[in-house]
Design brief:
Helix content is about 40%, strand content about 15%. It is of the alpha+beta class. Helix 6 runs antiparallel to helix 7, helix 6 packs across helix 8 and helix 10 crosses helix 12.
């Protein structure tokens, strides 16, 4: 090996965590025979076709991901659960490495790539290319949308939104903009409602609750926006059932900062300690669909009927599970 070739190879290996391709090796001055001798001697191992690990033993997670990107080729970026791993949306590595490549390319067409799932899409042009040392990946917003499109229920899809915003990886504004830019987003209409409510349009939640939970299920109407004072401070209860000493709070926020979470819990504790008022909290997902509203009605009637005269009955939706309560 020429001295200059050795220096070039070492530079590649440092940048790529001991991973190199045949093309890179030749570009650095090595020939195929040199690579084959290293493989035959057991000093290098073949990770994928044309991609090699230049040490024995286990390599780092970053090295594994770099090898997958190198095998996938030009324009490849880490995506889906693998991008979520790097962006802090999940806490453990996903067993399969997910890579997205431009739609015109299909690096897995000849037998696939072991342990790697290839996605083909042109919605990766704005992927995160921070610098040459950074593993290429989809933007956080595109990662979330990709995972939403893989979700089989709205609750599962909504959880990705909550995790991304709650962990500070993005904002609801950026997610909303990214969704409007994407051609296909599962539950798009529902998420428009989510972002509307999260922006402060709680009147929509109140209407959904009154018209989808209270009225069709025979629940006594609550007093709305009841002004109270807690330790000298003014506050409001969204829905107060005075006879039952129960409060239903409607919350449109996608994710709360920790200090607001404690404020909510302090208010709930104050209500309970100073008037035996029990509080239940409902968000967008509890009121988004007819089925969700029926489930919410089941929970509301159980809370109220445990604290006062029996009320409630099923609505006209097939499958509604609210029992028919008889006034005692």
């Amino acid at each position: 090996m020429r001295p200059d070739a050795n220096q070039k190879v070492q530079a590649v290996l440092r940048a790529q965590k001991l991973i190199i391709t045949m093309e890179q090796a030749q570009g650095a001055g090595l020939d195929r025979c040199f690579v084959k001798r290293r493989l035959a001697a057991g000093r290098w191992t073949r990770k994928y076709r044309g991609v090699y690990v230049t040490v024995t033993g286990k390599v780092s997670r970053e090295a594994e991901l770099r090898a997958a990107l190198l095998r996938a080729g030009e324009g490849a970026v880490l995506s889906y659960w693998t991008a979520a791993e790097l962006q802090g949306l999940i806490d453990k590595p996903y067993p399969v490495i997910h890579v997205t490549v431009p739609a015109k390319r299909n690096p897995a067409r000849c037998g696939g790539i072991p342990g790697v799932k290839i996605h083909r899409s042109d919605v990766i042009l704005d992927s995160q290319h921070l610098d040459d040392k950074t593993l290429r990946r989809t933007r956080v917003e595109d990662t979330v949308i990709d995972l939403i499109n893989q979700s089989v229920t709205f609750d599962a899809a909504y959880t990705w939104i909550c995790v991304a915003v709650g962990r500070g990886r993005t904002t609801q504004e950026r997610l909303n903009m990214a969704m409007e830019e994407r051609g296909r987003v599962r539950y798009r209409r529902e998420f428009r409602r989510v972002f509307e409510a999260a922006s402060g349009a709680l009147s929509w939640l109140e209407l959904r609750y009154v018209n989808g939970v209270e009225k069709p299920h025979g629940i006594t109407p609550a007093d709305r926006q009841v002004h109270i004072r807690q330790d000298g401070l003014s506050t409001y209860m969204d829905l107060l059932y005075r006879l039952y000493k129960a409060c239903m709070e409607l919350d449109g926020a996608i994710a709360h900062p920790p200090e607001q979470k404690w404020d909510d819990e302090d208010r709930d504790l104050w209500n309970l300690a100073n008037g035996e008022i029990v509080t239940a909290r409902f968000g967008v997902r509890h009121l988004l669909t007819d089925e969700a509203m029926c489930t919410t009605a089941v929970n509301v009637t159980k809370i109220l009927n445990a604290r006062g005269p029996a009320i409630g009955h099923p609505c006209t939706r097939p499958g509604c599970k609210v029992p028919s309560y008889v006034q005692s």
